[in-house]
Design brief:
Elements: H1 5-8, H2 11-14, H3 26-48, H4 56-65, H5 68-79
């Protein structure tokens, strides 16, 4: 696995190039996908709820402005 996640792209884990092992490590991949889903869930909860944060919509917008590949990378690196 040479290069950073952004250089290789997320598709590398789903369809490895020739010469690469055919069984990608699925635990980091699942963690990355779960992190993306969690970011959307937190943003939805902040928008829908009248929680303790008076600026919940602003915080939710900030969460949604972060690209999915960044959230995926954060989750992936936790279990890599």
């Amino acid at each position: 696995m040479e290069g950073s996640l952004l250089q290789r792209g997320i598709g590398w884990y789903l369809d490895p190039p020739e010469g690469a092992p055919q069984d990608p490590d699925l635990i980091p991949h699942a963690a990355g996908i779960a992190t993306v889903g969690l970011s959307y869930a937190v943003a939805a909860a902040l928008i829908a709820g009248d929680g303790p944060l008076p600026f919940g919509d602003v915080v939710a917008a900030g969460i949604l402005l972060v690209p999915d590949v960044v959230w995926y990378g954060i989750g992936y690196t936790l279990f890599d």
